[in-house]
Write a structure and sequence with these properties.
By secondary structure, this protein is α/β, with parallel strands linked by helices. It has one domain: Rossmann fold, CATH 3.40.50.1240. It has 4 helices and 6 strands. A 6-stranded mixed β-sheet has the order 3-2-4-1-5-6. Helix 2 links the parallel strand 2 and strand 3. Helix 1 packs across helix 2. The longest helix is centred in the first third of the chain and has 16 residues. The chain starts with a strand and ends with a strand. The model has no long low-confidence stretch (mean pLDDT about 95).
Amino acid sequence: MKTLHLIRHAKSDWDAENQRDIDRPLNKRGRKACKIMAQRIIDAGCNLEKVFCSPAERAQQTIKGIAEALAPRDITWEIDYELYTFDSQDLLDWLDKVEDAIDELVLVGHNPALTELTNLLGEMHLENLPTCGYVQIQLDIHTWNEISANCGKLQQFLTPKD
């Protein structure tokens, strides 16, 4: 069994014109959502030990905000440029290459890729994984390259507004 934790980046700031998408930071509401969600994600059973994050500024600020809210717990993450995607197939391809020694991992990324991935893997249909939303999927696989449609069961779905 493998467990996949998905965190969509928190609400980003659209006020800065002419800013590249990858450089957009979080807004005030997004920073607050990280603080709200941090302990809830831990309480849902996420250990935040193997965390992989999109290089987008808003994604990095999301995991950093969650980590700061959980201090003194030491949370680290890896930036992976392949996770700056809006396509669930890109995420599936990425997951297919994960080391099998990793049983549980966290992805911090973007929609629509995360919502589509949740719907592809699980038995429940989500309309939308909102900003700073969290999903936990238990996967009925033994190696990551076995990942496929309907191989998972949605265990947790949390949003800042819950």
